[in-house]
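ugh ok so i messed up the first submission bc i forgot one of the chains. this is the corrected input, ALL of the components this time, i swear. 607 residues overall. if the numbers dont match what u have on ur side tell me asap before i send this to the collaborators (the ones from the other lab, u know who)
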Amino acid sequence: MSNQLSTLERQPPMTRRDPAMAKRKPLGVRVYTRFRFVALAVVVLSLLAPLAWLVASSLKTNVDIYDASKTFFFVPTLENYANVLTRNNYFVFIFNSFWVASASTILSLILGVPAAYAMSRFTMHRSALVVLMARVIPGISLLVPWYYVFSNMKMVGGFTVLILSHMFVALPLIVYIMMSYFDSMPLELEESAQVDGLTPIGAFRRITLPLSVGGMATAGILSFIFSWNNFMFALVLSGSKTKTLPVAIFDFVSYASIDWGGLMAAATVVTVPIMVIALFTQKYIVSGMTAGATKG
Amino acid sequence: MSVSTSPRTVVRGTKKPQSFSDWANKHRKWLFAAPAMIFVGLLIVFPLVWTVYLSLTDSHGSVRAPSQFIGFANYLEVLSDTERFWPAAGRTAYFTITALVVEVVLGMMIALLLWRPFRGEKWVRVAILLPLVATPVAVGMMWRLIFDPNMGFANQMLGWFGIPAQPWLSGQSTALPTTIFMDIWQWTPMVVLILLAGLTSLSDEPDEAARMDGANAWQRFFFVTLPLMMPTVIVAILLRSIDALKTFDILYATKGKGGGSFHEVETLNIYAYGLSFDYNEYGLSSAVLMIFFFIIIGVMWMLTRRKKGSK
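and heres the new structure output, hopefully the right one now
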């Protein structure tokens, strides 16, 4: 337990040498350290156990899922995955999800990054508010008009309309994150670039953009995840050929009896890729989620 | 702005024949912002105006079918509907407030635990991140299995402690609390991340000063840390309440159309979705959505006003 003590507590030599001090202070710290260890263990367990349960169930046969004696000990099988991937055509849904998420993310970055730059540099607060409104509006109020207009244009069930609807989620997110990124970037860099002969747009393209790759990665990764996870728009606007993974999972339960093993395998197929991406891009996701939160 | 007074622009500006690049540089403010704003305008402002129009008509069956302008009759019908609308509004409030209170209190506790560096911090952060990025529909399915009354792990676990099995999602009174629990599981991590970012940006000095003055840990939290954290707490509440009010995925994934056969988890969002896409009552659903929209705007206005007041 002693190595769990914070460096702050261990470092000052005074606490170690002076017995009176060493007795009083570390006791409280040690109790807290122990309490913190237990509390955090509970937190981690309750966050991870359900996910572990999801993956474990996807590796069980349907008979084993109903068997209480096989809660923890069972013979893992990949049968559910084989069923889901081959018989239910999940490769198509995986491709659809991937294509819609990538396209909507890239297009939103192209539209959103310059817009965020202009809104940050020229403090266009009212324009920013219009874009950020998109975050607040209940999506359903847009779905009826969209459905009507796009079905008139024979676009419902196509990729274009799905990508457009996902851009509606991605664009405000990107503008929001990039605005706080540009706000924190010093003006002097651009100014000195212009003194050296670059036009304002040139300074944006050659100085500001390369420096904001981190911010764009943050915004891009988050908007990819949000698009990948999006359910409601795809539920209404996707057709049989453009169905994305969340809708495909939902279709699993519309039958009379639920194939639990298959459902859990499908749910694992949809969540695990995004979790793996999240693990490798953790730093970006955290900075995106907390963007603008500490400005007050 | 100081950018536009840079030497280059001034020199170029005096030349009469302007190239496209000069024009673009001069108007870059709107050149940059316009595409995004036009996109948002087409996809949001126009549908929103249409929703306002639809809410004043008796449009149903098909949006293409001719409809009558009936003024505020839809609003009157919705606001006097004690069978579906008001219970749905009540559930929305119950869901949002309960989830938010638990998430903020729990989130603050976890953020405080994570505040000072410790060994294994990396692993805790990973655990916090995973629920956050998990697909809500898949999360809903996962909890459906865990909360299954017959073979779910939740009841199995209660059995170990001798507690009788609960109906969870299939119970009329337990369904909504169960979905709130799911929301808490998935979104408390987001509150933790936001509050943790706030905590790490605090300076140590006020806390140290209070410690010098003999304040104990509780006093330092309630009289020093918490007041300093209030702006961040309000940002967390603001972001979470927007999403919690509009919760759709886990409710629809676990209980399906109409929020279950007794509308146990039917919130305003689920109700409006059902009116639009199951019953094709576009006029009525537009009225519900407009009222819902005003509720959201009202909540946001109240929260941002509090935020400004606390500065």
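quick check: The first helix of chain B runs from residue 7 to 14. that seems consistent at least. The radius of gyration of chain B is 26 Å.
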